[in-house]
Amino acid sequence: MSVPKIKHIRASVVRGGGGDYHDVEDGHWIDDHIATPMARYPEYRQSRRSFGINVLGTLVVEVEADDGTKGFAITTAGEIGAFIVEKHLARFIEGRPVTDIERAWDQMYFSTQYYGRRGIVVNAISAVDLALWDLLGKWREEPVHALLGGPVRDELVFYATGARPDLAKQLGFIGGKLPLQHGPAEGEEGLKQNLAKLEDMRNRVGDDFWLMYDCWMSLDLNYATRLAHKAHEFGLKWIEECLSPDDYWGYAELRRNIPRGMLVTTGEHEATRWGFRMLLEMGCCDIIQPDVNWCGGITELIKISALADAHGALMVPHGSGPYSYHFCCTRHNSPFNEIIMSAPKADRVLPAFHPLLVNEPVPENGRLKLSALDKPGFGVELNPACTLHRPYTH
Ligand SMILES: [Mg+2]
């Protein structure tokens, strides 16, 4: 069998939503007084954009084989990521068979290890990796989930992240994850407001609907432990990413000290098999939440997911749209999925990477039939209405 070779890789940036879903207009729930580690400074408390959460923008990586087949993927890495792809990673991709994904990952990771290991470099590697899986699927005319061993279920079920779990329930989701709004710097009054919000939502959604709190790295161990105990009364299902991603010791202690039955989750800002090995072996959490576009791509997620499975942990990716749908449907320890409500009022379901992708599947009534993932590769295309800018060449 003759395998086409990769002729060209290029990296572009685009503004306004897409891979960088914090890159929003004024008035969006995702930027409305959400607790962050920067909220200890009052001037950065009201808006995450004020401290630069949207500074990077979306990176788009496109690959093209010598038979004309094309693949692409996106991440959050902006112009710095584009530099790394064009000036460093391209050499490991061009001229190689479209099937050489494992070797490409290994070479990208270890050639950048002296300045990489996580963050923007691994985001960029993730986008290249996902573009290669997309290309392989499009060449073989198979969806990525088929390349991964095939689905283990007929549909995906979703919980929704956003400011309105009550609306998420009406839209058919199995649960709603609220952004925590007040951090330790806002004292006892802030803690009361956090609990009042949870109580209000519990009253609106009834006893059986899942409610979770996403704390976006904003708390300290004492505050997180107190919040967990007080929130237990309102049936909080899990407490997410409440400490710094570097504080493995804090997560392990939190997990030992929260009410029985409540889950600790984290990992959206963790990367690679080595980072998740720390979380799993130190007993930091019950569910790991790698972002497929940030953790190293599908090639690394295979290893991360297997490690979680061996530890009896669930692997439920952060957001990640179609990139996670194609993976999760093939794994028993990924029984449900997250969608981030990208509509400004969290009142309707938009594609996860709106408006950058065409044909991005969207859950209906909180569910996505596997038939919606039946197209080659990840089954999506770039929206020609979004203007790509290529800042570097090679
Ligand atoms: Mg989160």
Automatic annotation (TrEMBL):
UniProtKB keywords: Lyase, Magnesium, Metal-binding
Domain Mandelate racemase/muconate lactonizing enzyme C-terminal: 165-261
PROSITE patterns for this protein: MR_MLE_1 (PS00908)
Cofactor binding note from Swiss-Prot or TrEMBL: Binds 1 Mg(2+) ion per subunit.
InterPro entries, sorted: Enolase-like_C_sf (IPR036849), Enolase-like_N (IPR029017), Enolase_C-like (IPR029065), L-Rhamnon_dehydrat (IPR023444), Mandel_Rmase/mucon_lact_enz_CS (IPR018110), Mandelate_racemase_C (IPR013342), Mandelate_racemase_N_dom (IPR013341), RHMD-like (IPR046945)
Entry GO MF terms: L-rhamnonate dehydratase activity; magnesium ion binding
Family in the record: Belongs to the mandelate racemase/muconate lactonizing enzyme family. RhamD subfamily.
Gene3D superfamilies: Enolase-like C-terminal domain, Enolase-like, N-terminal domain
Magnesium recorded as keyword: yes
The protein's required cofactors: Mg(2+)
Site keyed Increases basicity of active site His: positions: D291
Presence of the UniProt keyword Disulfide bond in the record: no
Pfam families: MR_MLE_C, MR_MLE_N
Residues the record marks as site: Transition state stabilizer: E338
Quaternary structure and interacting proteins, as annotated: Homooctamer; tetramer of dimers.
Organism in which the protein naturally occurs: Methylobacterium nodulans (strain LMG 21967 / CNCM I-2342 / ORS 2060)
Binding site for Mg(2+): D214, E240, E268
EC number: 4.2.1.90
Family annotation (PANTHER family): ENOLASE SUPERFAMILY, MANDELATE RACEMASE, MITOCHONDRIAL ENOLASE SUPERFAMILY MEMBER 1
Binding site for substrate: H22, R48, E338
Other noteworthy facts: Reaction proceeds via a syn dehydration.
Stated name of the protein: L-rhamnonate dehydratase
NCBIfam families with a match to the protein in the record: PRK15440.1
